[in-house]
Amino acid sequence: MRRPLIVTAGALGAVLLAGAGFGIGAATGDGGHGTAAVNGGTPHPETEASGHEEDPKLSTEDGHDHAAHEGNEGTPAIYDPNAKPGAGFRARDAVLPPAPTGRRHEVTLTVTEKVIEVAPGVRQRAWTYNGTLPGPVLRGKVGDTFAITLVNKGSTGHSIDLHASQVAPDTKMRTIAPGEQLTYTFTAKRAGAFMYHCGSAPALHHIGNGMYGAIIIDPPNLPKADQEFVIVQSELALGPQDGLAKLSKLYTADYDAVAFNGYAGQYRFTPLTATAGKRTRIWVVDAGPSAPSAFHVVGTVFDTVFTDGGYTVRPDDAARGGAQVLDLAPSQGGFVEFTFPEPGEYAMVSHRFADATRGALGLFKVKA
Fold first, then answer.
1. Residue 276, Cβ density class (10 Å: 0-12 exposed, 13-18 middle, ≥19 buried)
2. Which terminus of the chain has a lower count of CB atoms within 10 Å, N or C?
3. If pLDDT is split at 50, 70 and 90, which confidence band does 68 have?
4. What spatial distance separates the first Cα and last Cα of the chain, rounded to whole Å?
5. Residue 70 has what pLDDT?
6. Do 291 and 258 contact (CB within 8 A), yes or no?
7. Which region, left, alpha or beta, applies to residue 31 given φ > 0 means left and ψ of -120 to 50 means alpha?
């Protein structure tokens, strides 16, 4: 049972900054090899009617008994919003480097299984791209070509679906068996902050167990920001300690915690740093798999909002409008820009406060 969060601070700002819980195939000649798909040519699940009708009784779509993934053995992992990480904890670096030079980007994503701490004292056996949760952030510009080589060193079939691509999913997004690999090449034709994820059935479990990441395609003539960050939000449906995510919880969206960049509340314990008065850009992707995000930075107003491929707020707007949240459905992404007005501590949260209390929060420490 999830431990209740008790908040006693009187004012919202005090709660955010100090209150309990918030705290300060190769088909088409693409270079892959192996069978056309696992289990005799089964297409990518999202191309079939059954791909969006995953059985809540945990029956199988791909030849595997997913009931075995329920993780009924072992000590249940329990998220405690008041717990702190142990000595030596290191938060994931949220600073986003500039888009790489060149117009072709070759990336290898290797699927591995790894026990990862996802909240203080909570460990799960994640399915990962390159051993991290979320997977590596990819970045380029409109017109760039990406050659993504997927290598499956896991124990079951996996795939990759890059939302920035426009390709036939039954070939390039197909499931490959353990020991196989394929190369997925596409040209990014549209700008945005996109999600990538495993689409193998049931996709809900593969995403919920860690197989997701962000691919950022810069809009043309994107101005330089003084400081740039990336946040990927996701839910944690905890199974046993050191075990897989709980599939039955994922089917009912009964998640235990919400994470920014793979760890619940990590930037509360290790705040991000920024400078007052400098142009700040934060890219956000909601990886879900099921919960929306209302990304908000307390004490600021966004003068620029770019979401799902277009600007909705610009600083030169005659109305001088501003935004208070970047609202995202699962798999949506975008960015916001603003300046921190003065030095201090600024909380960032999902303004869906039930999720903020479960880990969708962090801090910026802003210097002069």
1. middle
2. N
3. low
4. 44
5. 57
6. yes
7. left
The partner residues of 109 in beta bridges, in order of sequence, read: 150
Residue type, 221: N
6-18 per-position pLDDT tens digit: 333 233 333 333 3
User: Under a CB-based contact definition with an 8 Å cutoff, are residues 104 and 142 in contact?
Assistant: no
Q: 75: helix, coil or strand?
A: coil
Q: How far apart are the C-alpha atoms of 75 and 77, rounded to whole Å?
A: 6
Looking at residue 51, what DSSP letter applies?
G
**Angstrom distance (rounded) from CA 302 to CA 323:** 5
Q: Which two tokens stand for residue 220?
A: 């043309």
The pLDDT tens digits of the residues spanning 84-117 come to 999 999 999 999 999 999 999 999 999 999 999 9
- Give every strand in the sheet of 161-162, ordered side by side: 138-141, 212-218, 192-197, 161-162
CB count within 10 Å of CB 314 equals 12
CB distance 138 to 215 below 8 Å: yes
Q: Do 170 and 44 contact (CB within 8 A), yes or no?
A: yes
Residue 344's DSSP bridge partners are 366
Q: Is 18 helix (H, G, I), strand (E, B) or coil?
A: helix
The string of DSSP codes covering 203-265 is HHHHHHTT-EEEEEEEPTTPPPPSEEEEEEEEEE---BTTB---HHHHHTT--SEEEETTBTT
CA neighbours within 13 Å on the CB side: how many for 334? Answer: 24
212 alpha-carbon distance from chain centroid: 6
